């Protein structure tokens, strides 16, 4: 059995359909407005988050650079201490003669030099 449904097309039905279309259009406008507001809010949160991420990357790079510079500073301090130690030792004539003979292979008259690399001063 098939039933045929007939819709009454009177003034009340037309007014209700028009009111429903108006409400649907208002709902679509409100949803579109809320969508734009949501996109704007997302952009307002994304931009500072991106800047925060860049600042964090810069901070990590500077920390790595600081650690590198600190190691270099310590090495330079050790080198300075070594150089000042050598400078004070070279003021002694007997040590300067031994150092020159060992480092630069200087010899006295009639003396033969055999170098041993492990024993040379740095």
Automatic annotation (TrEMBL):
InterPro entries: DivIC, FtsL/DivIC. The chain crosses the membrane at residues 33-53. It holds the Pfam family DivIC. The keyword Transmembrane applies. GO terms for biological process: cell division. Keywords: Cell cycle, Cell division, Membrane, Transmembrane, Transmembrane helix. The keyword GTP-binding does not apply. This is Cell division protein DIVIC. The gene is divIC.
């Amino acid at each position: 059995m098939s039933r045929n449904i007939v819709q009454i097309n009177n003034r009340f039905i037309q007014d209700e359909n028009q009111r429903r279309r108006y409400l649907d259009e208002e709902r679509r406008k409100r949803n579109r407005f809320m969508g734009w507001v949501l996109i704007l809010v997302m952009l307002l949160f994304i931009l500072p988050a991106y800047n925060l991420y860049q600042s964090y990357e810069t901070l990590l790079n500077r920390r790595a650079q600081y650690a590198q510079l600190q190691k270099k500073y310590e090495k330079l301090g050790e080198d300075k201490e070594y150089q000042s130690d050598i400078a004070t030792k070279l003021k002694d004539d007997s040590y300067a003669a031994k150092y020159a003979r060992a480092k630069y292979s200087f010899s006295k008259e009639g003396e033969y030099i055999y170098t041993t690399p492990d024993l040379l001063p740095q």
